[in-house]
Design a protein that fits this description.
The chain is mostly beta strands. The chain folds into three domains: about 240 residues, 7 Propeller (Methylamine Dehydrogenase, Chain H); about 290 residues, 7 Propeller (Methylamine Dehydrogenase, Chain H), CATH 2.130.10; about 55 residues, no CATH class. The strands form 13 sheets. The chain has a six-stranded antiparallel sheet with strand order 1-32-33-34-35-2, with no helix packed on it. A five-stranded mixed sheet has the order 12-16-15-14-13, with no helix packed on it. It is elongated, with a radius of gyration of 31 Å. It starts with a strand and ends with a strand.
Length: about 600
Protein backbone atom coordinates (compact mmCIF):
# COMPACT_ATOMS: atom_id res chain seq x y z
CA UNK A 1 0.00 0.00 0.00
CA UNK A 2 1.04 3.56 -0.52
CA UNK A 3 2.93 5.15 2.42
CA UNK A 4 1.99 8.43 4.05
CA UNK A 5 1.47 11.33 1.66
CA UNK A 6 1.64 15.09 2.20
CA UNK A 7 0.39 17.57 -0.33
CA UNK A 8 1.15 21.18 -1.13
CA UNK A 9 -1.70 23.57 -1.91
CA UNK A 10 -2.27 24.30 -5.61
CA UNK A 11 0.10 21.53 -6.77
CA UNK A 12 -0.41 17.79 -6.86
CA UNK A 13 2.50 15.99 -5.21
CA UNK A 14 3.16 12.40 -4.29
CA UNK A 15 5.03 11.33 -1.14
CA UNK A 16 6.84 8.06 -0.64
CA UNK A 17 8.74 6.96 2.49
CA UNK A 18 12.51 7.50 2.22
CA UNK A 19 14.97 5.30 4.11
CA UNK A 20 18.48 5.94 2.87
CA UNK A 21 21.88 7.41 3.54
CA UNK A 22 23.09 10.25 1.32
CA UNK A 23 25.57 13.09 1.35
CA UNK A 24 23.98 16.14 2.98
CA UNK A 25 25.21 19.73 2.95
CA UNK A 26 23.73 22.12 5.50
CA UNK A 27 22.18 25.27 4.15
CA UNK A 28 22.25 28.68 5.74
CA UNK A 29 19.04 28.11 7.69
CA UNK A 30 16.33 30.69 8.16
CA UNK A 31 13.95 30.47 11.08
CA UNK A 32 11.29 27.89 10.26
CA UNK A 33 7.87 28.92 11.59
CA UNK A 34 6.39 26.65 14.25
CA UNK A 35 2.87 27.98 13.70
CA UNK A 36 0.88 29.33 10.79
CA UNK A 37 1.18 33.08 10.30
CA UNK A 38 -1.89 35.22 10.92
CA UNK A 39 -1.92 35.90 7.20
CA UNK A 40 -2.42 32.15 6.61
CA UNK A 41 -5.54 31.85 8.77
CA UNK A 42 -9.02 31.81 7.27
CA UNK A 43 -11.63 34.34 8.43
CA UNK A 44 -15.41 33.88 8.31
CA UNK A 45 -17.68 36.87 8.89
CA UNK A 46 -21.22 37.10 10.24
CA UNK A 47 -23.11 40.39 9.94
CA UNK A 48 -26.66 41.69 9.85
CA UNK A 49 -26.99 40.03 6.46
CA UNK A 50 -26.52 36.65 8.19
CA UNK A 51 -29.06 37.37 10.91
CA UNK A 52 -27.09 39.29 13.53
CA UNK A 53 -29.11 42.05 15.19
CA UNK A 54 -26.15 44.44 14.93
CA UNK A 55 -22.73 44.72 13.34
CA UNK A 56 -21.49 46.47 16.49
CA UNK A 57 -20.42 43.48 18.59
CA UNK A 58 -18.90 44.08 22.02
CA UNK A 59 -17.87 40.53 23.02
CA UNK A 60 -18.27 36.85 22.16
CA UNK A 61 -17.33 33.60 23.93
CA UNK A 62 -18.12 29.92 23.57
CA UNK A 63 -19.94 28.51 26.60
CA UNK A 64 -19.25 25.06 27.99
CA UNK A 65 -22.33 23.69 26.20
CA UNK A 66 -20.92 24.75 22.82
CA UNK A 67 -22.98 27.85 22.03
CA UNK A 68 -21.41 31.16 21.05
CA UNK A 69 -22.80 33.97 23.20
CA UNK A 70 -22.59 37.47 21.75
CA UNK A 71 -23.12 40.84 23.40
CA UNK A 72 -24.12 43.99 21.54
CA UNK A 73 -25.69 47.37 22.23
CA UNK A 74 -28.93 45.85 20.90
CA UNK A 75 -29.18 42.76 23.07
CA UNK A 76 -27.68 39.30 23.59
CA UNK A 77 -27.42 36.62 20.92
CA UNK A 78 -26.95 32.87 21.22
CA UNK A 79 -25.35 31.45 18.12
CA UNK A 80 -24.50 27.92 16.94
CA UNK A 81 -23.34 28.96 13.40
CA UNK A 82 -26.72 27.83 12.00
CA UNK A 83 -29.31 29.54 14.21
CA UNK A 84 -29.33 32.83 16.09
CA UNK A 85 -31.55 33.46 19.11
CA UNK A 86 -31.92 37.08 20.27
CA UNK A 87 -32.56 38.16 23.86
CA UNK A 88 -33.52 41.81 24.35
CA UNK A 89 -36.14 43.84 26.21
CA UNK A 90 -38.89 42.42 24.03
CA UNK A 91 -38.38 38.98 25.61
CA UNK A 92 -36.56 39.95 28.82
CA UNK A 93 -38.58 42.58 30.71
CA UNK A 94 -35.95 42.55 33.49
CA UNK A 95 -33.68 44.62 31.25
CA UNK A 96 -33.52 48.40 31.55
CA UNK A 97 -31.63 48.71 28.25
CA UNK A 98 -30.46 46.35 25.51
CA UNK A 99 -26.78 47.31 25.78
CA UNK A 100 -24.13 44.89 27.06
CA UNK A 101 -20.34 45.16 27.31
CA UNK A 102 -19.02 41.69 28.14
CA UNK A 103 -20.03 38.07 28.73
CA UNK A 104 -18.20 35.71 31.10
CA UNK A 105 -18.68 32.09 32.20
CA UNK A 106 -17.85 30.71 35.65
CA UNK A 107 -16.65 27.20 36.50
CA UNK A 108 -20.24 26.06 37.09
CA UNK A 109 -21.35 27.04 33.57
CA UNK A 110 -23.26 30.13 34.71
CA UNK A 111 -23.05 33.06 32.28
CA UNK A 112 -22.51 36.58 33.63
CA UNK A 113 -23.32 39.61 31.47
CA UNK A 114 -21.95 43.08 32.23
CA UNK A 115 -24.62 45.52 31.06
CA UNK A 116 -24.80 49.22 30.33
CA UNK A 117 -27.94 49.86 32.37
CA UNK A 118 -29.15 46.62 33.99
CA UNK A 119 -26.29 45.82 36.34
CA UNK A 120 -25.16 42.19 36.13
CA UNK A 121 -27.40 39.69 34.35
CA UNK A 122 -26.97 35.96 34.92
CA UNK A 123 -28.00 33.00 32.76
CA UNK A 124 -28.37 29.60 34.44
CA UNK A 125 -30.70 26.64 33.97
CA UNK A 126 -31.91 28.25 30.73
CA UNK A 127 -33.19 31.33 32.57
CA UNK A 128 -32.04 34.95 32.77
CA UNK A 129 -32.13 36.89 36.04
CA UNK A 130 -30.67 40.04 37.55
CA UNK A 131 -27.88 39.51 40.06
CA UNK A 132 -29.24 40.41 43.47
CA UNK A 133 -26.91 41.56 46.25
CA UNK A 134 -27.03 42.82 49.80
CA UNK A 135 -24.87 45.51 51.33
CA UNK A 136 -24.14 48.33 48.95
CA UNK A 137 -26.25 49.04 45.89
CA UNK A 138 -25.37 47.30 42.64
CA UNK A 139 -24.18 49.84 40.03
CA UNK A 140 -26.49 49.96 37.03
CA UNK A 141 -23.70 50.31 34.48
CA UNK A 142 -21.17 47.47 34.79
CA UNK A 143 -18.15 47.47 32.53
CA UNK A 144 -16.10 44.46 33.66
CA UNK A 145 -16.09 41.40 35.92
CA UNK A 146 -13.50 39.14 37.54
CA UNK A 147 -15.01 35.89 38.80
CA UNK A 148 -12.73 34.39 41.46
CA UNK A 149 -12.31 30.68 42.18
CA UNK A 150 -13.72 31.14 45.70
CA UNK A 151 -17.04 32.40 44.30
CA UNK A 152 -16.45 36.08 44.96
CA UNK A 153 -16.74 38.55 42.09
CA UNK A 154 -15.04 41.88 41.38
CA UNK A 155 -17.39 44.26 39.58
CA UNK A 156 -15.98 47.18 37.61
CA UNK A 157 -18.49 49.94 36.99
CA UNK A 158 -18.90 52.96 34.77
CA UNK A 159 -18.08 56.07 36.84
CA UNK A 160 -18.62 54.40 40.24
CA UNK A 161 -15.39 52.51 40.78
CA UNK A 162 -14.71 48.91 41.78
CA UNK A 163 -16.87 46.62 43.93
CA UNK A 164 -16.38 43.17 45.43
CA UNK A 165 -19.24 40.74 45.94
CA UNK A 166 -18.61 37.91 48.39
CA UNK A 167 -19.79 34.40 47.58
CA UNK A 168 -22.67 35.08 49.98
CA UNK A 169 -23.78 37.99 47.77
CA UNK A 170 -22.63 40.89 49.96
CA UNK A 171 -21.46 43.85 47.87
CA UNK A 172 -18.86 46.36 49.04
CA UNK A 173 -16.96 49.09 47.22
CA UNK A 174 -13.15 49.15 47.22
CA UNK A 175 -13.03 52.60 48.76
CA UNK A 176 -10.45 54.94 47.22
CA UNK A 177 -10.69 58.66 46.54
CA UNK A 178 -9.62 58.24 42.91
CA UNK A 179 -11.28 54.92 42.11
CA UNK A 180 -14.68 55.80 43.53
CA UNK A 181 -15.71 58.05 40.65
CA UNK A 182 -14.01 56.49 37.62
CA UNK A 183 -14.74 53.69 35.14
CA UNK A 184 -13.07 50.29 35.57
CA UNK A 185 -12.44 48.73 32.18
CA UNK A 186 -10.79 45.48 33.30
CA UNK A 187 -9.73 43.54 36.40
CA UNK A 188 -7.31 40.57 36.55
CA UNK A 189 -5.34 38.74 39.22
CA UNK A 190 -1.74 37.66 38.70
CA UNK A 191 -0.18 34.41 39.88
CA UNK A 192 1.17 36.05 43.03
CA UNK A 193 -2.36 37.04 44.03
CA UNK A 194 -2.10 40.74 43.25
CA UNK A 195 -5.14 42.43 41.72
CA UNK A 196 -4.64 44.69 38.69
CA UNK A 197 -7.19 47.34 37.77
CA UNK A 198 -7.46 49.06 34.36
CA UNK A 199 -9.15 52.46 34.44
CA UNK A 200 -10.49 54.91 31.90
CA UNK A 201 -8.27 57.99 32.19
CA UNK A 202 -6.49 57.22 35.46
CA UNK A 203 -3.98 54.59 34.42
CA UNK A 204 -3.30 51.25 36.10
CA UNK A 205 -3.66 50.26 39.74
CA UNK A 206 -2.47 47.22 41.66
CA UNK A 207 -4.03 46.01 44.91
CA UNK A 208 -2.36 43.53 47.25
CA UNK A 209 -5.28 43.29 49.64
CA UNK A 210 -4.36 46.29 51.76
CA UNK A 211 -2.50 48.76 49.57
CA UNK A 212 -3.15 50.36 46.17
CA UNK A 213 -0.24 51.24 43.88
CA UNK A 214 -0.64 53.50 40.84
CA UNK A 215 1.03 53.39 37.41
CA UNK A 216 0.39 56.27 35.03
CA UNK A 217 2.09 58.18 32.25
CA UNK A 218 4.57 59.54 34.77
CA UNK A 219 5.63 55.93 35.39
CA UNK A 220 5.98 55.21 31.66
CA UNK A 221 2.49 54.32 30.42
CA UNK A 222 1.80 55.44 26.86
CA UNK A 223 -1.70 56.46 27.91
CA UNK A 224 -3.73 56.70 31.12
CA UNK A 225 -6.64 55.15 29.22
CA UNK A 226 -6.05 51.48 30.05
CA UNK A 227 -8.62 49.28 28.35
CA UNK A 228 -7.54 45.68 28.87
CA UNK A 229 -5.23 43.39 30.88
CA UNK A 230 -3.93 39.84 30.60
CA UNK A 231 -1.57 37.64 32.62
CA UNK A 232 0.71 35.22 30.77
CA UNK A 233 1.91 31.79 31.83
CA UNK A 234 5.13 33.34 33.15
CA UNK A 235 3.18 35.94 35.19
CA UNK A 236 3.90 38.81 32.84
CA UNK A 237 1.12 41.40 32.85
CA UNK A 238 0.07 42.66 29.42
CA UNK A 239 -1.36 46.17 29.57
CA UNK A 240 -3.40 47.41 26.60
CA UNK A 241 -3.88 51.16 26.35
CA UNK A 242 -5.35 53.68 23.92
CA UNK A 243 -1.84 54.28 22.54
CA UNK A 244 -0.25 50.85 22.54
CA UNK A 245 0.82 47.81 24.52
CA UNK A 246 3.06 47.31 27.55
CA UNK A 247 4.37 44.39 29.55
CA UNK A 248 4.93 44.65 33.29
CA UNK A 249 7.13 42.09 35.02
CA UNK A 250 8.83 42.38 38.40
CA UNK A 251 7.91 46.06 38.49
CA UNK A 252 9.55 46.83 35.12
CA UNK A 253 7.34 48.41 32.48
CA UNK A 254 8.23 47.76 28.84
CA UNK A 255 6.67 49.14 25.65
CA UNK A 256 6.11 46.76 22.72
CA UNK A 257 7.03 48.88 19.74
CA UNK A 258 5.23 46.83 17.09
CA UNK A 259 1.91 48.04 18.54
CA UNK A 260 2.97 51.54 19.54
CA UNK A 261 0.23 54.12 18.83
CA UNK A 262 -2.24 51.28 18.16
CA UNK A 263 -5.31 51.30 20.47
CA UNK A 264 -5.54 47.90 22.22
CA UNK A 265 -9.10 46.88 23.11
CA UNK A 266 -8.68 43.33 24.40
CA UNK A 267 -5.99 40.84 25.46
CA UNK A 268 -6.53 37.09 25.31
CA UNK A 269 -3.88 34.52 26.30
CA UNK A 270 -4.56 30.98 25.10
CA UNK A 271 -3.57 27.60 26.53
CA UNK A 272 -0.37 27.60 24.47
CA UNK A 273 0.62 30.94 26.07
CA UNK A 274 0.17 32.82 22.82
CA UNK A 275 -1.00 36.38 23.32
CA UNK A 276 -3.82 37.67 21.12
CA UNK A 277 -4.82 41.33 20.84
CA UNK A 278 -7.98 42.91 19.47
CA UNK A 279 -7.01 46.39 18.28
CA UNK A 280 -8.55 49.30 16.41
CA UNK A 281 -6.31 48.45 13.43
CA UNK A 282 -6.65 44.66 13.29
CA UNK A 283 -5.65 41.50 15.15
CA UNK A 284 -2.19 41.01 16.65
CA UNK A 285 -0.41 38.04 18.19
CA UNK A 286 2.78 37.25 20.08
CA UNK A 287 4.09 33.68 19.99
CA UNK A 288 4.35 31.52 23.10
CA UNK A 289 8.12 32.05 23.27
CA UNK A 290 7.69 35.82 22.67
CA UNK A 291 9.97 35.68 19.62
CA UNK A 292 7.38 36.35 16.92
CA UNK A 293 5.23 39.48 16.83
CA UNK A 294 2.49 39.83 14.21
CA UNK A 295 -0.07 42.47 13.34
CA UNK A 296 -2.62 41.66 10.65
CA UNK A 297 -4.13 44.96 9.53
CA UNK A 298 -5.73 46.50 6.45
CA UNK A 299 -2.28 47.25 5.05
CA UNK A 300 -1.56 43.52 5.17
CA UNK A 301 -4.89 42.39 3.72
CA UNK A 302 -6.93 42.01 6.94
CA UNK A 303 -10.14 43.81 6.03
CA UNK A 304 -11.56 44.29 9.52
CA UNK A 305 -10.97 46.94 12.18
CA UNK A 306 -12.36 48.36 15.44
CA UNK A 307 -11.97 44.96 17.09
CA UNK A 308 -13.47 44.92 20.58
CA UNK A 309 -12.80 41.48 22.03
CA UNK A 310 -11.12 38.18 21.27
CA UNK A 311 -11.56 34.63 22.58
CA UNK A 312 -10.97 31.04 21.52
CA UNK A 313 -13.34 28.08 21.42
CA UNK A 314 -12.81 24.39 22.19
CA UNK A 315 -12.14 23.60 18.53
CA UNK A 316 -9.36 26.17 18.32
CA UNK A 317 -11.21 28.85 16.36
CA UNK A 318 -10.63 32.45 17.45
CA UNK A 319 -13.76 34.59 17.78
CA UNK A 320 -13.36 38.32 17.30
CA UNK A 321 -16.05 40.93 17.87
CA UNK A 322 -15.91 44.10 15.81
CA UNK A 323 -17.45 47.49 16.35
CA UNK A 324 -18.57 47.70 12.74
CA UNK A 325 -17.79 44.44 10.93
CA UNK A 326 -19.88 42.04 13.00
CA UNK A 327 -18.58 38.72 14.31
CA UNK A 328 -15.42 37.15 12.92
CA UNK A 329 -14.32 33.54 13.22
CA UNK A 330 -10.61 33.07 12.59
CA UNK A 331 -9.58 29.50 11.94
CA UNK A 332 -6.02 28.35 12.28
CA UNK A 333 -5.70 25.83 9.49
CA UNK A 334 -2.61 24.16 10.90
CA UNK A 335 -0.95 24.73 7.52
CA UNK A 336 2.60 26.06 7.64
CA UNK A 337 3.90 27.76 4.52
CA UNK A 338 7.61 26.93 4.18
CA UNK A 339 9.30 28.84 1.34
CA UNK A 340 12.67 29.92 -0.02
CA UNK A 341 12.60 32.56 2.71
CA UNK A 342 13.02 29.76 5.26
CA UNK A 343 15.77 27.93 3.33
CA UNK A 344 13.80 25.87 0.81
CA UNK A 345 15.84 25.44 -2.36
CA UNK A 346 12.89 26.32 -4.60
CA UNK A 347 9.22 27.22 -4.09
CA UNK A 348 8.04 24.99 -6.95
CA UNK A 349 7.48 21.81 -4.96
CA UNK A 350 6.28 18.59 -6.61
CA UNK A 351 6.64 16.06 -3.83
CA UNK A 352 7.00 15.77 -0.06
CA UNK A 353 7.89 12.46 1.61
CA UNK A 354 7.88 11.49 5.29
CA UNK A 355 10.00 8.65 6.65
CA UNK A 356 9.69 6.67 9.88
CA UNK A 357 11.70 9.29 11.81
CA UNK A 358 9.22 12.03 10.80
CA UNK A 359 11.81 13.53 8.47
CA UNK A 360 10.37 15.09 5.33
CA UNK A 361 12.06 14.98 1.92
CA UNK A 362 11.06 17.62 -0.59
CA UNK A 363 11.50 17.28 -4.35
CA UNK A 364 11.22 20.42 -6.46
CA UNK A 365 10.45 21.24 -10.06
CA UNK A 366 14.03 22.41 -10.63
CA UNK A 367 15.60 19.06 -9.72
CA UNK A 368 16.65 19.77 -6.13
CA UNK A 369 15.86 17.77 -2.98
CA UNK A 370 15.62 19.20 0.54
CA UNK A 371 15.24 17.56 3.91
CA UNK A 372 13.10 19.01 6.73
CA UNK A 373 13.47 17.72 10.29
CA UNK A 374 12.54 19.32 13.61
CA UNK A 375 12.30 22.79 12.12
CA UNK A 376 15.52 22.70 10.10
CA UNK A 377 16.05 22.46 6.35
CA UNK A 378 19.08 20.86 4.71
CA UNK A 379 19.91 20.42 1.02
CA UNK A 380 20.86 17.02 -0.39
CA UNK A 381 23.65 17.38 -2.93
CA UNK A 382 23.51 15.16 -6.02
CA UNK A 383 26.37 14.67 -8.47
CA UNK A 384 23.94 13.96 -11.29
CA UNK A 385 22.59 17.12 -12.89
CA UNK A 386 18.80 17.09 -12.67
CA UNK A 387 18.37 20.84 -13.01
CA UNK A 388 15.05 21.73 -14.63
CA UNK A 389 14.24 18.01 -14.95
CA UNK A 390 11.65 18.15 -12.22
CA UNK A 391 11.62 15.64 -9.36
CA UNK A 392 8.39 13.70 -9.88
CA UNK A 393 8.73 10.98 -7.25
CA UNK A 394 11.13 9.54 -4.68
CA UNK A 395 11.23 6.04 -3.23
CA UNK A 396 13.43 4.29 -0.69
CA UNK A 397 14.70 0.92 -1.87
CA UNK A 398 16.62 -2.00 -0.39
CA UNK A 399 20.08 -1.55 1.16
CA UNK A 400 19.58 2.16 1.68
CA UNK A 401 19.08 2.91 -2.01
CA UNK A 402 17.27 6.06 -3.02
CA UNK A 403 15.31 6.06 -6.28
CA UNK A 404 14.37 9.38 -7.88
CA UNK A 405 11.97 9.79 -10.81
CA UNK A 406 12.38 12.74 -13.16
CA UNK A 407 11.90 13.50 -16.84
CA UNK A 408 15.53 12.43 -17.38
CA UNK A 409 14.93 8.89 -16.21
CA UNK A 410 15.35 7.07 -12.92
CA UNK A 411 18.27 8.07 -10.69
CA UNK A 412 19.59 5.42 -8.31
CA UNK A 413 21.59 6.77 -5.35
CA UNK A 414 23.42 4.40 -3.03
CA UNK A 415 26.04 5.86 -0.72
CA UNK A 416 28.44 7.85 -2.92
CA UNK A 417 27.35 6.03 -6.06
CA UNK A 418 24.81 7.42 -8.51
CA UNK A 419 23.48 5.96 -11.74
CA UNK A 420 20.92 7.46 -14.10
CA UNK A 421 18.90 4.66 -15.71
CA UNK A 422 17.74 5.21 -19.27
CA UNK A 423 17.08 3.43 -22.52
CA UNK A 424 20.23 1.29 -22.32
CA UNK A 425 18.94 -0.09 -19.02
CA UNK A 426 15.67 -1.24 -20.53
CA UNK A 427 13.68 1.95 -20.10
CA UNK A 428 12.24 2.73 -23.52
CA UNK A 429 10.94 5.98 -22.07
CA UNK A 430 12.67 8.32 -19.60
CA UNK A 431 9.84 10.74 -18.76
CA UNK A 432 9.15 9.11 -15.38
CA UNK A 433 6.32 10.25 -13.09
CA UNK A 434 5.85 7.62 -10.37
CA UNK A 435 7.79 4.94 -8.47
CA UNK A 436 6.04 2.21 -6.49
CA UNK A 437 7.79 -0.38 -4.33
CA UNK A 438 5.70 -3.55 -4.11
CA UNK A 439 5.50 -6.26 -1.46
CA UNK A 440 8.34 -8.20 -3.11
CA UNK A 441 10.63 -5.13 -3.18
CA UNK A 442 10.27 -4.89 -6.94
CA UNK A 443 9.90 -1.35 -8.27
CA UNK A 444 7.24 -0.15 -10.69
CA UNK A 445 8.09 2.90 -12.82
CA UNK A 446 5.23 4.82 -14.44
CA UNK A 447 6.11 6.97 -17.44
CA UNK A 448 4.44 9.65 -19.49
CA UNK A 449 4.99 8.01 -22.87
CA UNK A 450 6.19 4.44 -22.37
CA UNK A 451 3.73 2.80 -20.01
CA UNK A 452 4.88 0.92 -16.90
CA UNK A 453 8.19 -0.81 -16.20
CA UNK A 454 8.63 -3.48 -13.51
CA UNK A 455 12.19 -3.43 -12.19
CA UNK A 456 13.86 -6.09 -10.04
CA UNK A 457 16.18 -4.60 -7.42
CA UNK A 458 17.76 -8.02 -6.90
CA UNK A 459 18.53 -8.50 -10.61
CA UNK A 460 19.12 -4.79 -11.30
CA UNK A 461 17.11 -4.88 -14.50
CA UNK A 462 13.69 -4.36 -16.05
CA UNK A 463 11.82 -7.67 -15.91
CA UNK A 464 8.45 -6.66 -17.36
CA UNK A 465 6.99 -3.87 -19.44
CA UNK A 466 3.32 -2.86 -19.74
CA UNK A 467 2.28 -0.75 -22.72
CA UNK A 468 -0.68 -0.56 -25.08
CA UNK A 469 0.75 -3.64 -26.78
CA UNK A 470 0.73 -5.54 -23.46
CA UNK A 471 -2.75 -4.61 -22.22
CA UNK A 472 -2.75 -0.94 -21.20
CA UNK A 473 -5.15 1.35 -23.05
CA UNK A 474 -2.81 4.35 -22.68
CA UNK A 475 0.97 4.66 -22.35
CA UNK A 476 0.54 7.89 -20.35
CA UNK A 477 0.43 6.63 -16.75
CA UNK A 478 -0.28 9.20 -14.05
CA UNK A 479 -0.65 7.08 -10.92
CA UNK A 480 0.23 3.70 -9.42
CA UNK A 481 -0.98 2.05 -6.23
CA UNK A 482 -0.96 -1.40 -4.63
CA UNK A 483 -3.58 -3.04 -2.43
CA UNK A 484 -3.04 -5.47 0.43
CA UNK A 485 -3.26 -8.45 -1.97
CA UNK A 486 -0.40 -7.13 -4.10
CA UNK A 487 -2.63 -6.08 -7.01
CA UNK A 488 -1.46 -2.97 -8.88
CA UNK A 489 -3.82 -0.17 -9.91
CA UNK A 490 -2.67 2.14 -12.72
CA UNK A 491 -4.44 5.42 -13.47
CA UNK A 492 -3.90 6.79 -16.95
CA UNK A 493 -4.52 9.72 -19.24
CA UNK A 494 -7.43 8.78 -21.55
CA UNK A 495 -7.04 5.04 -20.92
CA UNK A 496 -9.05 4.39 -17.78
CA UNK A 497 -8.01 2.47 -14.68
CA UNK A 498 -6.04 -0.71 -15.26
CA UNK A 499 -5.88 -3.44 -12.62
CA UNK A 500 -2.85 -5.73 -12.81
CA UNK A 501 -3.63 -8.72 -10.63
CA UNK A 502 -1.02 -10.47 -8.54
CA UNK A 503 -1.27 -13.46 -10.91
CA UNK A 504 -0.57 -11.26 -13.95
CA UNK A 505 -4.15 -10.94 -15.22
CA UNK A 506 -5.10 -7.45 -16.44
CA UNK A 507 -8.38 -5.60 -16.86
CA UNK A 508 -9.18 -1.96 -17.59
CA UNK A 509 -12.20 -0.12 -16.16
CA UNK A 510 -13.66 3.13 -17.46
CA UNK A 511 -15.31 6.04 -15.68
CA UNK A 512 -17.27 7.00 -18.81
CA UNK A 513 -18.21 5.23 -22.02
CA UNK A 514 -15.36 7.09 -23.69
CA UNK A 515 -12.46 7.99 -21.40
CA UNK A 516 -10.72 10.20 -23.94
CA UNK A 517 -9.60 13.27 -22.01
CA UNK A 518 -10.25 11.62 -18.63
CA UNK A 519 -7.23 11.91 -16.33
CA UNK A 520 -6.87 9.73 -13.24
CA UNK A 521 -4.42 11.92 -11.36
CA UNK A 522 -4.09 9.78 -8.27
CA UNK A 523 -5.31 6.69 -6.47
CA UNK A 524 -5.58 6.16 -2.72
CA UNK A 525 -6.18 2.73 -1.17
CA UNK A 526 -7.05 2.74 2.51
CA UNK A 527 -6.42 0.06 5.13
CA UNK A 528 -9.76 -1.59 4.26
CA UNK A 529 -8.72 -1.78 0.58
CA UNK A 530 -11.26 0.86 -0.43
CA UNK A 531 -10.03 2.44 -3.66
CA UNK A 532 -10.47 6.21 -3.96
CA UNK A 533 -9.98 7.82 -7.36
CA UNK A 534 -9.01 11.45 -7.99
CA UNK A 535 -9.73 12.52 -11.56
CA UNK A 536 -10.40 15.61 -13.60
CA UNK A 537 -14.08 14.60 -13.56
CA UNK A 538 -14.24 14.51 -9.78
CA UNK A 539 -13.79 12.09 -6.89
CA UNK A 540 -14.88 8.45 -7.04
CA UNK A 541 -14.90 5.25 -5.05
CA UNK A 542 -13.99 2.20 -7.14
CA UNK A 543 -15.51 -1.06 -5.94
CA UNK A 544 -16.45 -4.33 -7.64
CA UNK A 545 -15.57 -2.91 -11.04
CA UNK A 546 -17.82 0.15 -10.62
CA UNK A 547 -17.03 3.84 -10.15
CA UNK A 548 -19.34 5.73 -7.75
CA UNK A 549 -19.00 9.50 -7.86
CA UNK A 550 -18.78 11.34 -4.55
CA UNK A 551 -21.29 14.18 -4.62
CA UNK A 552 -19.87 17.11 -2.70
CA UNK A 553 -22.17 19.60 -1.00
CA UNK A 554 -20.12 22.61 -2.07
CA UNK A 555 -18.51 22.54 -5.49
CA UNK A 556 -16.59 25.64 -6.47
CA UNK A 557 -16.67 26.74 -10.07
CA UNK A 558 -13.56 25.64 -11.92
CA UNK A 559 -12.38 23.38 -9.08
CA UNK A 560 -10.00 20.58 -10.11
CA UNK A 561 -8.87 17.77 -7.80
CA UNK A 562 -5.33 16.37 -7.78
CA UNK A 563 -4.55 14.06 -4.87
CA UNK A 564 -6.01 12.31 -1.82
CA UNK A 565 -4.34 12.04 1.59
CA UNK A 566 -5.70 10.15 4.59
CA UNK A 567 -4.84 11.38 8.08
CA UNK A 568 -4.54 9.42 11.33
CA UNK A 569 -8.29 9.78 11.95
CA UNK A 570 -9.03 8.42 8.44
CA UNK A 571 -10.30 11.78 7.19
CA UNK A 572 -9.48 12.67 3.59
CA UNK A 573 -7.53 15.74 2.48
CA UNK A 574 -7.84 16.48 -1.23
CA UNK A 575 -5.65 18.99 -3.02
CA UNK A 576 -7.33 21.23 -5.56
CA UNK A 577 -6.44 24.25 -7.66
CA UNK A 578 -8.36 26.37 -5.12
CA UNK A 579 -6.87 24.97 -1.91
CA UNK A 580 -7.21 21.81 0.17
CA UNK A 581 -10.53 20.09 0.88
CA UNK A 582 -11.07 18.18 4.10
CA UNK A 583 -13.63 15.38 3.95
CA UNK A 584 -14.42 13.70 7.25
CA UNK A 585 -14.61 9.91 7.30
CA UNK A 586 -18.03 9.92 8.98
CA UNK A 587 -19.46 12.03 6.17
CA UNK A 588 -18.15 9.63 3.53
CA UNK A 589 -19.67 6.69 5.40
CA UNK A 590 -23.05 8.43 5.66
CA UNK A 591 -22.99 9.09 1.92
CA UNK A 592 -22.20 5.51 0.92
CA UNK A 593 -24.66 4.12 3.48
CA UNK A 594 -27.37 6.22 1.84
CA UNK A 595 -27.94 8.38 4.93
CA UNK A 596 -26.83 11.57 3.16
CA UNK A 597 -27.21 12.56 -0.49
CA UNK A 598 -24.12 14.80 -0.46
CA UNK A 599 -20.77 14.86 1.33
CA UNK A 600 -19.88 17.87 3.46
CA UNK A 601 -16.43 19.40 2.94
CA UNK A 602 -14.29 22.15 4.40
CA UNK A 603 -12.02 24.21 2.14
CA UNK A 604 -8.66 25.52 3.34
CA UNK A 605 -7.42 28.22 0.99
Amino acid sequence: MRPKVYLMIYRSIVLIVLLFQARISYAQLANIPQQAALSQTSVYQWTGENGLISNNITSAIQSSDGFIWITTYNGIMRFDTDRIVVYDRSVLPILATDAFYQVYEDKHGVLWFASQGSGVVQYADKKFKLLEVTGEKMPKSVRSLLIEDDGSVWIGSNNEGLFRMTKEGVLKRLDHEVLNSISIFDVVRDKKGKLWIATDGNGLFSFNGTHLEHFGQDEGLLSNNVSTLGVSEGDTLYVGTADGLHTLYNGKLKTLNFLKNVPINDVYIDQENRKWFATENGVARISADNKLEELSSRKKGFAYSRLNSISRDKEGSVWISSGRDGLLQMRETGILNITEQHGLSNNRVNIVVEDATHTFYIGTDVGSIDRYHEGELTHIELKTDLKEAGIRDICGGINGTLWIASYRGILRVQGNSEKLLGEKDGLTAIDMRRILSDKNDDLWFASRSGGIFKYSQKLNKVVKRYTKDEGLESNYVLSLEQNSQGDIYAGTHSGGLTLIKNDGAMHTYHITDNDAGVLIFNIHIDEDDNVWIVSNLGLYRFSMGTFTKIKLRAINKGETYFDWLEDHEHNAWVTTNLGVLKIERKDLLKFFEGKDTVVHTKLYD
